[in-house]
Structures are given as C-alpha cells and as structure tokens.
Design a protein that fits this description.
Blueprint (H helix, E strand, L loop, with lengths): L23 E3 L2 E3 L6 E5 L2 E7 L9 E7 L8 E3 L3 E15 L2 E5 L4 E4 L5 E17 L4 H12 L5 H10 L2 E3 L9
Antiparallel strand pairs: 1-2, 3-4, 4-5, 5-10, 6-11, 7-8, 7-9, 7-10
C-alpha cells in the first residue's frame, strides 16, 4: 500500500511555494524547496541544479538553465551519459552530429552518449531543462561557477574541467563560454 503524499500548497508565478519546502525524504519520495537548489552562473547561462545524482542514487540529474540571446555551450560530447533537453521558453538550435534541429517550447531532444552536440538559444534567449542519464556531469556546472567567480575560468582550466566530468570539447583551442 502506497503512502499518501501530504497536501503541499503552491502559488503560481515566481513566488514558489507558500512555505519553504526543505529537502526532506518521505516514504514516497523527496521534496526540495526552490530556495534549496544549488545555483550557478556562467558567462553564457544561469542555472539551478534541481536534483543531483546524490538525490537519485546516480540514476539521473536534473537542471534548469536560462541562456542569453544567441548563447550556448561549445560543441562537446559526454562519454558516459545520455543528455535530454526539454525546451520551456524561447527557441533553440541544436547541432547533434551532422544534424541541425530548430526547437521551441514543449520540444524534447535526446543526445546519446558519445555524440558531439551544441545548442544555441535564439534571439530572445531561452529556458530549458537538462537531464543527464545517469547522473555525473552536473558537478561541472557547480565547479565552473566557482572558477568563474574567482576569475579562473579560461581555456587552460576548461579542458581539464571537461575531462573531470567525462566530457570532451570538440575544439579545445577556442571557446565562447568564458
């Protein structure tokens, strides 16, 4: 018999829940309040780590990201994870291998492990959810944020950072991410 979830009241808009929800395990799952997300900021995006591998027994990680107009990561690949994108707002252009896709709100894109890819937000910017399966690369964003805050995110630190999280840049001699 399943336990019933407690009644959690939320409000619409950016105000979030009417009360702060702690990261609390329940027999039926986990509740995390919006004030508890690990937030990160890089020159090309703002984001939040919604669920880490620690929260999901390494099954997946879930992140929310906002990209500025015409912004996005450099072409890269993940050796050990599939990556899923759900476009929430704005438009995006995805380059996956030799394929180019133009996507908008509601579209979901899967990129298999080992496949080079890049996404770029449209002229108004965009917001999307990213899921890594299994978890692993989410720590990259937190560590990159720390390097950026110290003024140490540069070409010399970017390559080793990608490697630490099982990723490779397609071209490590240039970047638009710093």
């Amino acid at each position: 018999m399943m336990s019933e979830a407690p009644d959690v009241t939320t409000t619409a808009g950016s105000a979030g829940p009417t009360t702060a929800l702690p990261r609390t395990p329940f027999p039926w799952g986990l509740v995390r309040g919006s004030t508890e997300y690990a937030r990160f900021r890089l020159p090309f995006l703002d984001g939040a780590l919604l669920l880490s591998g620690q929260d999901t027994d390494d099954a997946f990680a879930l992140l929310e990201m906002r990209l500025g107009p015409e912004q996005g990561p450099d072409p890269h690949l993940h050796r050990d994870e599939d990556e899923y994108f759900h476009v929430v707002e704005g438009s995006y252009r995805f380059r996956i291998g030799d394929t180019t896709l133009d996507c908008g709100p509601g579209d979901v894109v899967k990129v298999g492990r080992g496949v080079p890819h890049q996404l770029t937000a449209g002229p108004a910017g965009g917001r999307h959810l990213t899921m890594f399966v299994p978890a692993g690369p989410e720590g990259w964003f937190i560590e990159a944020d720390s390097l950026a805050r110290r003024g140490e995110l540069n070409l010399a630190t970017l390559g080793p950072l990608f490697e630490r999280y099982g990723m490779s840049q397609v071209d490590s001699t240039t970047t638009r991410m710093i």
